Amino acid sequence: MKWSIVSKLSAVVFFSAIIFIACTKENEEDLQPKINQPLCDTVNMMFTKDVLPIITLNCYSCHGNGQMQGGMNLDGYIRIKRQVDNNQLINVIRHSPGYAQMPQGQPKLAQCDIDKIEAWIRRGALNN
Fold first, then answer.
1. Which of 3, 39, 109, 112 has the fewest CB atoms below 10 angstroms from its CB?
2. Are 108 and 93 in contact (CB under 8 A)?
3. CA 44 to chain centre
4. What is the per-residue DSSP string for the chain?
5. What percent of the chain has a predicted confidence (pLDDT) above 70?
6. pLDDT at 29 over 50
7. Taking the domains of the chain in order of start, what are their residue ranges?
């Protein structure tokens, strides 16, 4: 079967249109947040550098600097480690069933922050 010039041209236009539609800016924008979204680096999490800033920012207004809402004080490594050892810390920030959801009355921590704390705990929750 011979293709006429018109058939060939129609096929080229059709496939060009398909490719153009598939590669529009709209589709590029849909991919952009995934491409530009930073990865959550949970390798070698350290208490002072990685975990303490998350706890200070999200927990200290109620559980640090002398505040002990709910009878919990997270001032310093020893008090935080106590909550790690009894599984309280990870379960309250995960919003696990049967545990208070922390931070109370606030949205759940960013998943990356939770992942960082979990990675630190898996490495032994060391004071480094």
1. 39
2. yes
3. 16
4. -PPPHHHHHHHHHHHHHHHHHHT-HHHHHHHHHHHHSPP---TT--IIIIIHHHHHHHHHHHHSTT--GGG----HHHHHHHHHHTTHHHHHHHT-TTS--SSTTSPPPPHHHHHHHHHHHHTT----
5. 71
6. no
7. 5-36, 47-122
Q: What is the pTM of this model?
A: 0.70
Q: Degrees (nearest 5) of the Cα angle 39, 40, 43?
A: 115
N-to-C CA span, the chain = 75
Tell me the longest C-alpha to C-alpha distance in the chain. Answer: 87
* Residue whose pair of structure tokens reads 């060939």 in the numeric block: 8
Assigned token pair, 65: 């600097």
Q: Residues 62, 104: contact at Cβ < 8 Å?
A: yes
pLDDT at 73 over 60: yes
Count of all residues that appear for the chain in the document: 128
Q: Model confidence over 33-61: pLDDT tens digits?
A: 556 667 999 999 999 999 999 999 999 99
